[in-house]
Specification:
Elements (H helix, E strand, L loop, with lengths): L1 E5 L6 E3 L6 E3 L11 H12 L12 H19 L10 E4 L1 H20 L15 H21 L5 E6 L8 E5 H11 L3 H21 L2 H22 L2 E2 L5 E2 L6 H11 L5 E2 L2 E2 L2 H12 L3 H6 L1 H28 L7 H13 L3 H10 L2 H21 L1 H4 L12 H5 L1 H8 L7
Parallel strand pairs: 1-5, 4-6
Antiparallel strand pairs: 2-3, 5-6, 7-8, 9-10
């Protein structure tokens, strides 16, 4: 569960009449280096036929009234204004969820792969038939990832961080909810309500604190811009200049790797000694593959984003525990069942999560919730409400681990008359 952090695009998902299911329409690769049509087809293939629209009986209308009531309770507890209108719940199948995620990825990945077909990239390697083949292979990889993930997600708040004109969506993944309820031995309708009130909490957070979307979107844009500079072949300096240094662009690195495969252990266009290779492998095993790829400078930006998302996810978990039982009396039992689900993932899932950094998503729930619990226990919910005042009030990674530091920094002295 959680949020789709969507950069926004004008094409990708087309809803079908009467349901939240949909189909992904492709206009061909055009100038794209990724074959998005292939990504959708392969994603659906991996998702399996059981992930299509069926007779699960999940109806948004059955939980919509209670979800709206819960949104009002969240507003009161968190001190966040409630908007006049919140996104409607949509029941979708796996193909529709994959389409939504490909729509999310497209504006993020297209700029990063655009240079592969340009005159400044590796046109000699990726042109003509080979370009089409490469586009299919890239699409296959993206599609395989979304297909695998579509088997596990239960619900998501779909938010376009880089385009405020895109209407957010609340998605419930019908086949996964039905399957999870059966596997966990819990009531299906209660599980659907549990997921719905979690996601509606995110809707209240972002609508009640509109600066939050801009703040996260700004960090995401900064990260993308930095990655584009690296892929183009240099590291940005002050004043917009670039320098060729230890961190070469990905395009040049690929040329070097292809030319040096017979010269020894080559990675990223240069030779590594055995100790460096061992360190890289150790970091990958510790779940630092993403950090290894981005570099330490951009990783600091990622950590800031993670700290913000830990607060957002943890606040939703905390709020559900505090006021959720009023709407859903079986919440403690559902919480225990969901914790078991998170902790009993198979080995392939654990490996995938570690390699992709998805393991951090699970930690976001835990770290953020502990922070919110500690703040409320120390000074009450009115203290926790300070996090929604502005970006300067958000906890850092260190403050998430030590809430007393955040309380001391953001303490508001009482007014004396």
């Amino acid at each position: 569960m959680g949020m789709i952090l969507e950069a926004g695009t004008s094409q990708g998902y087309e809803p079908l009449p009467g349901r939240g299911h949909g189909r992904f329409y492709a206009l061909g690769m055009g100038t794209d280096m990724i074959d998005w049509g292939a990504a959708q087809r392969i994603g659906e293939l991996i998702a399996g036929s059981s992930g299509r629209a069926g007779y699960g009986g999940v109806l948004a209308s059955s939980v919509e009234p209670l979800t709206r009531d819960f949104a009002g309770r969240v507003s009161d507890y968190a001190g966040l204004p409630l908007p006049a209108e919140l996104p409607a719940l949509e029941v979708v199948d796996r193909p529709a969820w994959i389409a939504a995620n490909l729509k999310t990825m497209r504006p993020l990945l297209d700029p990063l792969t655009a240079g592969m077909g340009s005159s400044d990239g590796i046109t000699g390697l990726l042109s003509g038939p080979l370009r089409s083949a490469s586009g299919f292979l890239l699409g296959a990889q993206v599609g395989a990832l979304t297909g695998v993930l579509s088997q596990r997600v239960l619900g998501q708040y779909d938010l376009a961080l880089l385009d405020a004109s895109v209407t957010p969506r609340l998605l419930l993944l019908e086949p996964n909810l039905v399957q999870a309820a059966r596997n966990l031995g819990v009531d299906r309708d209660e599980l659907v309500l549990w997921v719905s009130i979690h996601e509606i909490t995110h809707a209240v957070q972002f609508s009640g604190a509109p600066w939050l979307r801009e703040h996260l979107g700004g960090m995401l844009k900064e990260l993308i811009d930095g990655l584009q500079v690296t892929l183009a072949g240099g590291r940005s300096k002050e004043g917009g200049q670039h320098e060729e240094g230890a961190q070469q662009g990905w395009m040049q690195n690929l040329r070097g790797s292809l030319g040096g495969l017979t010269e020894g252990r080559v990675f990223g266009g240069r030779a590594f000694n055995p100790s460096e290779l061992r360190e890289m492998l150790d970091r990958a095993r510790r779940g630092e593959l993403l950090r290894l790829t981005l570099g330490d400078e951009r990783w600091q930006l990622v950590e800031r984003m993670q700290a913000t998302m830990s607060l957002v996810e943890g606040h939703a978990e905390h709020t559900m525990d505090v006021i959720g039982a009023e709407v859903l009396p079986s919440l403690p039992r559902l919480r225990a069942a969901m914790n078991r689900r998170r902790g009993t993932r198979g080995l392939p899932w654990r490996v995938l999560e570690r390699l992709l950094g998805l393991e951090l998503k699970m930690k976001q729930y835990e770290v953020g919730k502990r922070f919110c619990d500690a703040v409320v226990q120390a000074e009450g919910p009115q203290a926790l409400a300070r996090v929604w005042s502005g970006p300067e009030m958000l906890p850092s990674t260190g403050e998430l681990a030590a809430p007393a530091l955040w309380l001391a920094r953001t303490h508001v002295p009482p007014v004396t008359i």
